[in-house]
DNA sequence: CCATATATTCGGTAGACCCGAACTTTATAT
DNA sequence: ATATAAAGTTCGGGTCTACCGAATATATGG
């Protein structure tokens, strides 16, 4: 009874949101383009666009329509909705600086991971490019860190909903193996990703809990495998991460 | 022919978007709450919410509905849509560190300013709280910096659309005075805000132009008036800002 | 200046949105 | 435990509207 269960939907809203997504995908578009891409009449698209422009979700320059900066405000809201999310930002940055690796803070939503903050140690090239992107929890260090803190029945629900697709040949694709791994993660307090999501990328993750004991998210630090010595991977980075997680939980508990 | 001109709108989309805005305003809500707040029947609200949940714009936990992290992805897209926006981030951060003040990067959309990045020099308290917020261009240093780079007829259009409301008794509320001021700003390359938006807050702003010569946005640095000496306000901060704007334009032109 | 393509407006109808009522579930109090 | 209430959810039906297609306006290039 999970996905798209029974009830009714508002067709017009779905159309408008499809236009929004298509505007992102096409990086701005004209009426006709959208009409063709979505198999709608231009007049229909035009009416939807006018509505979205009025509501400030879309801007029109010439005949090209683009998503507006209104989404910045909405994103800012969802990011700061929980105090824990707000303070995670600077810790992620700190992690990236200390380790000189890519550091991220991720949370779980609907059984999947979402990148909330991403910082790179050195050059800020693809600094923000993955913010908001979703990923499979079982493929990453941060994801497994989060899973380790969830009730096992919830983990099983998530596996049933999203499956255990492989990212590389190292990905854990068996449920019982995953569950055993999560026990180990819970024990250690640290999760590892040994080229399980992407070839050549290793990562370490730690969960962070709220004052109610429930997991809020996870930090992780990733690096190209060839720049990551075994000692750094298994000792040094985990230690840094656990330290930051502790600081975070302390600050978070004081509010 | 500007605001809500003639044409038709999609009523259902407007309703869905009102629900989205209301979810932000109420910081999450139940069906009945929304129905009362928007004067709709609970069944109608329920159908809209189901649609939004399916589309991943809203999440449901228990009987409470919240905006989802999907907006992070959309915001990330609009932020990185223009390369200039993407690289402005680290310069804003740098400004905040160098000046130990609050530094922001803003752009213009539909005749108003939008905060795109905001950093505080010291403690990260309300670090992100204004991202995405809109403001009147004539009341701020960054806003006037942007206006100074726009064709004067465009400025007049903007004034006609949004007026010149006062934020404090120092706000420029007369169009011809504003236009004169913009000439001075263009000459100097720097704009000042002498407690014109908020009592007790001074700021300095500089515009940044794209390689096509059109303004992309503006940086500004703000500080409590009593911590800002005349020399810092009129000399030191402007110099820092102009330097950063130059670096920015250089990097931006190489892509 | 004409030809072409696209944006926008507008009439009419098929169909969907909205309400209200019935039903289900969850919470509270006796 | 049971009753009572309140909220969430489903579903039928009527009205309104979202959609299309054609006509008109606007922009582009030959």
Specify the CATH architecture of the largest domain in chain A.
Answer: 2-Layer Sandwich
Provide the low-confidence segments of chain A as ranges: none
Number of strands of chain A: 8
Q: How would the global form of chain A be characterised?
A: elongated
The quaternary state of the protein chains shown equals homodimer
Mean model confidence by pLDDT of chain A: 93
Largest sheet of chain A: 6 strands, antiparallel
Structural class of the helices, strands and pairings of chain A?
alpha+beta
For the termini of chain A, the CA-CA separation is 37 Å
CATH class of the largest domain in chain A: Alpha Beta
Proportion of residues in β-strands of chain A:
15-25%
Strand order of the largest sheet of chain A: 5-4-3-8-7-6
The largest inter-chain interface, given as chain pair and residues per side, is: A-B, 62 and 62 residues
Number of domains of chain A: 2
Cα-atom radius of gyration of chain A = 21 Å
Q: Can you offer a commentary on this structure?
A:
The structure is a homodimer of 255-residue chains. By secondary structure, chain A is an alpha+beta fold. The first copy, chain A, folds into two domains: 58 residues, Winged helix-like DNA-binding domain superfamily/Winged helix DNA-binding domain (Arc Repressor Mutant, subunit A, Orthogonal Bundle); 174 residues, GAF domain (Beta-Lactamase), CATH 3.30.450. The first copy, chain A, is 48% helix and 19% strand. In chain A, the strands form two sheets. Chain A has a six-stranded antiparallel beta sheet, sandwiched between helices. In chain A, strands 1-2 form a two-stranded antiparallel ribbon. In chain A, a hairpin with a 6-residue loop joins strand 6 and strand 7. In chain A, helix 2 packs across helix 3 and helix 5 runs antiparallel to helix 9. Chain A starts with 10 loop residues before the first helix and ends with a helix. At the A-B interface, helix 1, helix 3, helix 4, helix 5 and strand 4 of A face helix 1, helix 3, helix 4, helix 5 and strand 4 of B. The first copy, chain A, binds a DNA duplex (30 and 30 nucleotides) through helix 1 and helix 3. Chains A, B: It holds the Pfam family IclR_C. Chains A, B: Keywords: DNA-binding, Transcription, Transcription regulation. Chains A, B: It comes from Halorubrum lipolyticum DSM 21995.
């Amino acid at each position: 009874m999970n996905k798209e269960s029974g009830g009714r939907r508002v067709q017009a809203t779905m159309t408008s949101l499809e236009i929004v997504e298509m505007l992102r995908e096409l990086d701005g578009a004209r009426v006709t383009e959208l009409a063709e891409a979505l198999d709608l009449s231009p007049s229909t698209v035009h009416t939807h666009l006018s509505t979205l422009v009025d509501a400030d979700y879309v801007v029109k320059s010439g005949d090209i329509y683009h998503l507006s900066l209104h989404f910045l405000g909405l994103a800012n809201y969802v990011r700061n909705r929980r105090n824990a999310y707000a303070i995670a930002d600077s810790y992620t940055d700190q992690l990236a600086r200390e380790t000189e690796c890519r550091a991220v803070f991720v949370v779980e939503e609907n059984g999947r991971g979402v990148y909330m903050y991403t910082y790179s140690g050195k050059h800020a090239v693809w600094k923000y490019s993955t913010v908001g992107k979703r990923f499979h929890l079982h493929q990453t260090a941060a994801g497994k860190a989060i899973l380790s803190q969830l009730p096992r029945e919830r983990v099983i629900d998530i596996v049933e909903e999203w499956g255990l697709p492989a990212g590389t040949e190292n990905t854990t694709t068996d449920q019982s193996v995953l569950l055993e791994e999560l026990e180990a993660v819970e024990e250690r307090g640290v999760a590892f990703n040994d080229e399980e999501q992407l070839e050549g990328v290793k990562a370490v993750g730690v969960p962070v809990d709220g004052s109610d004991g429930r997991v809020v998210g996870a930090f992780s630090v990733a690096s190209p495998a060839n720049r990551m010595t075994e000692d750094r991977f298994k000792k040094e980075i985990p230690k840094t991460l656990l330290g930051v997680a502790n600081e975070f939980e302390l600050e978070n508990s004081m509010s």
